[in-house]
Amino acid sequence: MSASGNYIVESNVDNWPDAVSSTEEFATGAVAIDTNIITVATDIATASIIRFSSTGVLPSPLVTGTAYYAIRVDATHIRIATTAVLAAAGTAIDITDVGSGTHTLDVGEGSSTADRQAVINEMEHLIERITHDFFYAKAFVIYRNGSGSDRLFLSLTADVLSVSEVAVSGVALSTSWYTFDINSVYLDPEAAALDEGEMAELHLRLKYKRILFPSGMGNIKITGTYGWSACPTAIKQAVIILCRARNDSTLYDTYKDFDSERLGDAGYSRDSKKRFLTGIPAADELIRHYIRKKPMLSAV
User: Fold this and answer.
1) What is the model's pTM?
2) Is residue 189 within 8 Å of 209, Cβ to Cβ?
3) Are residues 217 and 145 part of one domain?
4) Domain containing 262: what range?
């Protein structure tokens, strides 16, 4: 298992610190709560530093990313101690459940999958906070007040990609009654074919064309996806730069490097440029065109 975000994966970044000495995955069935033993694939020496992460929930009381120490039972089994001294003494943690999902065990002092995941998550979240946007497709379900017209603006934080259901007061409309654009759902009276069997629906739609969304409080439910169908290359590159800079602070210029410099005949003013976003000019230049000027209400 490798670290993966919404925009990049671990392999996109080429300067991670040295990895842990070994990494392996194990299922909940490898945890025996009656003996506090975990079955492993690697022969792990007593007092080796170990850390855990999981796609679900770790066995209690283990905590993601916390340093523990192995107690070697044999070549394929360990118990866990909270300190090296307790590991040497054979004093193990009492494991009270097996957790859920697939668990990961990292052995050694190096950078673990969880460490790298945390860096990717932090940098992607930083860009989302700055741009007031997210650059992937995300499901939404929202309730809006009926507007008494044939168009309803959804006021989402990102562009609408698809609408799978529109329901009025709990009654789902036929998909032929409406269509959508990047920020609204609206009546589409020309979408129905003129087959004889569809004439009744066509008459209804034309009759109610101005009140497809009758006035009401939270009476319109819309389900769909919003965001970006594909992450822009510039956003991916910005995340990579930020991760590389976190791993090695000497790689990129920061704004403090320009404090005493002048660009051409004009001073480089921190107050006037308004481009100091991440603190790294190389990343800021990539994301500044993606900033939403007026962030809107999000889906509930």
Assistant:
1) 0.66
2) yes
3) yes
4) 128-133+230-290
